[in-house]
Amino acid sequence: MGRHKKMNFDKPLTGFSPKGPIQDWIVQAFNAEKVGTKLLMYSYTNSAIEKAQLDMIGRGAWSKNVLDRIQTNGAQAKIHDDIEAKIKASENPKSSIALLSPKGGIMHIKGCVFVGLGLMTFGSFNWTERAQNANYEIAHVTSDPALVKALNDEFDRVSPLASLEVPISQREHERTERSKLAASIQY
User: 152-183: buried (b, 16+ CB within 10 Å) or exposed (e) per residue?
Assistant: First the structure.
C-alpha cells in the first residue's frame, strides 16, 4: 500500500491528486471486496490498481468491466488483455470485460461499484499513473445507497451496448484504428 493510511469506508471520502490518496483507496476497496465489481472506466493504465483488481478476481470475486473502446490501445489494451485472461482463468461466468464508445463519442465515465462493500468511486480521476502522479483530479468514495444504486443502474444500462469479445485476430487491427481515432479527437 502507498503512503496513505487505511481508510474507513463508512463515511464519504473526497480525495485529490496529484499524489493524493485516491489510488490507495481504490486498491484498499479491491482488497476488501469479496463479491464483485462493476467498472465503467474511460482510461485505465494504473498498475497498482490493476494488480489489486486481478488479485480480487483471483480470490473468486467477479468483475464486470466496460472500458472506452477508443482509449483501449497501448497500455490500456494490455490491461484489458490481462483482465480478460484472469477472467477466463477464473471461469466465473459472471465476469466480463467489454469495450464501448457511442457513435461519435466516448465512454467517459470514471466509476466503480464495489458490490459486496456497498461502495462506489467516481470523479474525474482516470485509473492512470498520470492521474495519480501528475494531474489535478478529484474522486469521491461513498456508500450512499442512492448514489451506489445510480452508478449500478447506469452500468446495467450501458453494459449491454458494449462489445464483449474482440477476436484476437482483429485486436491488433482495432488497436491501430483506435490509436488513429484517438489521435484525431480534440479534447
Answer: eeebeebbeebeeebeeeeeeebbeebeeebe
User: Tell me, what amino acid is at 155?
Assistant: F
Which residue type does 120 have? M
Domain coordinates in residue numbering, the chain: 29-162
Q: List pLDDT tens digits, range 67-102.
A: 998 888 888 888 999 999 999 999 989 999 999 988
Mean pLDDT, all residues of the chain: 89
Question: Residue 109: which H helix or E strand, with range?
Answer: none
* Bond before 18 cis per omega within 30 degrees: yes
Q: Is 135 left (phi over 0), alpha (psi -120 to 50) or beta?
A: beta
> In what helix (H) or strand (E) does residue 96 lie, and over which residues does it extend?
strand 96-100
The yes/no answer on whether domain 29-162 falls in CATH 3.30.870.10 is: yes
pLDDT tier, 168 (very low <50, low <70, confident <90, very high otherwise): very low
Single-letter amino acid, residue 167: P
pTM (two decimals): 0.86
Cβ atoms of residues 158 and 102 within 8 Å: no
